[in-house]
Amino acid sequence: MKLLYLAPCTLALFGLSIAHSQSVSTSSIPHLEKRGKATQLIVDGRPFLLLAGELTNSASSSMDYMERYWPKLAAANMNTILAAVTWELVEPEPGKFDFALVDDAIREARRHHLHLVFLWFGSWKNGDSTYTPLWVKKNPRQYPLFLAENGQVITYLSVFKEANWKADANAFAALMRHIREVDGDAHTVLMMQVENEVGCPGATRDQVPEAKAAFDAPVPRQLMDYIVKNRDKLVPEFRQYWEAAGSKTSGTWAEVFGGQPMTNEIFMAWYYASYVDKVAKAGKAEYPLPMFINVDLGESIGEYSSGGALPIKLNVWQQGAPSIDVIGPDIYLPDFAEWCARYDRSGNPMWIPETRSDAANAFYAIGNHAAMGISPFGIERQADSTTPLAQAYELLGQAAPEILEAQAKGAIKAVSLDAQHPTETVHLGDYTFAFSVIRTRRPAPTPAAGRDAQTSSYAILISTGPDDYTILGSAVQATFTGPGPSAAAVAKLEEGTYVDGRWMPGRRLNGDDIMLNYDAPNKAIKNESGQGFRLAAGAPKALHLEIYRY
Ligand code: DGJ
């Protein structure tokens, strides 16, 4: 695995050292920074592209289980692993903390030149409270549970009880204090996820007395004022929902948003956000790493949890949880591009905390939405240097400095093509590129060849100068046209690799390798030269293209 632009974990100590809290300067802590057109994760002073993978839920609970996987994860070209840290194992008795598993994960990550993002499985994991310590579970009088609309108590901690968030925030703060002590200098740990896919069963709301009172009380001023002042900037579907109920500027939740089920969801979203914010804030007071939440997606009510940060509730979460820096969609649903677009709004930095292992999606999110990174789930079970994802990560890792600069400049685009969507036109800089799935003489893959075969045509296009481009990708081809009346052709096309972040040219491509169409007279009518480039199927490769006009 190559981390060419970042000293791997600053060649960290393989053991854990205790840094004095005073020695950790805030500016050196991994943080998010708006750089030009992109918000990026800055690690040790440089932008960092998260080429990540998330472990299955129980993996990080056993050092023995993980032992065999660390080398495989490193060999699969990842630079960051997302691993659960659970409240039940960290605080087995009230106020008594055990960070042995956290320390082991940090030690092993450093040993394998990997970074970590920890997932705090605290009050909720996918709505339920299965990761709370036994002393919380067995004491529902002190740590009260959710009351369903049918009068049943369910095993979810209630959002409306102060004792719950206080206990969670106390544990999370202790965890962040510990991470600062053992990692405040080395920066192996880059970000924290607070809780996991929070929410309660579809379109319902908690019925504990405090929840009922809150529902009948006025919508909090903080949210109401935000909606009124930012009317034109709201996510359109949220604005429409509010306007359909009469654009009221005060009133109870039912008065302001109407009596539809979505009002329950908006109400729960506000209170989940407020709770998660208190936990995140307590953690940041100890060690202010960037913090995010992840979202369980669905198209219609019942397919996802009420109160989660679905796109319609993005603004509610942003206002309710200012300590949360990023709202990350867990994209398992088919339309990856559409879900990216729905979260690339309202200033939300792009980061995909969970998804399927799919090289094309990784390229797409990073290239078309300036994503900070992507993290397929269940990664230890598929960690292998020969997978399409590992091959994609290898090239993305090599080209990361160029990609990150291009994200900041807004000089990067991406395409992801398949049989249903075989062509796409991309405008970048002065030129227009007509991308299509690569045409070979071999028969097209049959559906039986699987999902990867259908989605493995992808490319990132980077504008590196007025007439210069870098192209990274697999199984695509493109011709291009210039602006105005002059036609455009290939001045120089080379394939190559990156060594220590620097371009190392390989073959100079010409002849059959740039002529995509030999019918020059007819192409010329449309201002085209018929010249372009191809990227063969298989492991993605890099090209540098220089264009001239005539
Ligand atoms: C989404 C959850 O956030 C993950 O922890 C895991 O349970 C996956 N679903 C399983 O597909």
Search tags:
alpha/beta; eight-stranded parallel β-barrel; binds (2R,3S,4R,5S)-2-(hydroxymethyl)piperidine-3,4,5-triol; 27% strand; 18 helices; 550 residues; globular; six-stranded antiparallel sheet
Indicate the low-confidence ranges by residue numbers: 1-15, 18-23, 446-455
What is the typical, i.e. mean, pLDDT? Answer: 92
If you compute it from the alpha carbons, what radius of gyration comes out, rounded to the nearest whole angstrom?
25 Å
Q: How many β-strand runs?
A: 23
Give the overall shape, derived from the CA principal axes.
globular
Query: Which ions, cofactors or small ligands are bound in this entry?
Result: (2R,3S,4R,5S)-2-(hydroxymethyl)piperidine-3,4,5-triol
Strand order of the largest sheet: 4-5-6-9-10-11-12-13
Structural class: alpha/beta
Helical residues, percent: 25-40%
**What does the main sheet amount to?**
8 strands, parallel, barrel
Strand percentage, roughly? 25-35%
Treating each run of at least 4 consecutive H or I residues as one helix, how many helices?
18
End-to-end Cα distance, whole Å, is 43 Å
Give a written overview of the molecule.
This protein has 550 residues and is α/β, with parallel strands linked by helices. It is globular. The longest helix is centred in the middle third of the chain and has 26 residues, at 261-286. The model is unreliable at 1-15, 18-23 and 446-455 (pLDDT under 50). It is built from 18 helices and 23 strands. The strands form five sheets. The chain has an eight-stranded parallel β-barrel with strand order 4-5-6-9-10-11-12-13, surrounded by seven helices. The chain has a six-stranded antiparallel β-sheet with strand order 14-17-18-23-20-21. A hairpin with a 2-residue loop joins strand 20 and strand 21. The chain binds (2R,3S,4R,5S)-2-(hydroxymethyl)piperidine-3,4,5-triol (DGJ). (2R,3S,4R,5S)-2-(hydroxymethyl)piperidine-3,4,5-triol binds next to loops.
